[in-house]
Specification:
Layout lengths: L2 H6 L1 H15 L9 H15 L6 H11 L9
């Protein structure tokens, strides 16, 4: 299966999204909290040679993802 085929298959996209979410949701709460987001952003920064993550970036992303305003992205 090619990437192009994969992108056309919503079931596979959902499965990949769930797998990726589960990797980040280390406490298996069903939400991505600030610590989990900060950890994954820090790992990505190291791997991609970006500047380190800061609290303001994490807060901004949580704010964008937090549609029900409970302080969590999920």
């Amino acid at each position: 299966m090619s990437i192009k085929d994969l992108l056309k298959d919503s079931d596979k996209i959902d499965k990949i999204s769930k797998l990726a979410f589960d990797v980040v949701d280390t406490d298996q709460s069903g939400y991505i909290d600030r610590n989990e987001l900060e950890n994954i952003m820090g790992s990505i920064a190291v791997e991609m040679d970006f500047d380190g993550v800061n609290k303001e970036d994490v807060e901004e992303i949580i704010k964008e993802l937090d549609i029900d305003e409970d302080g969590k992205g999920g």
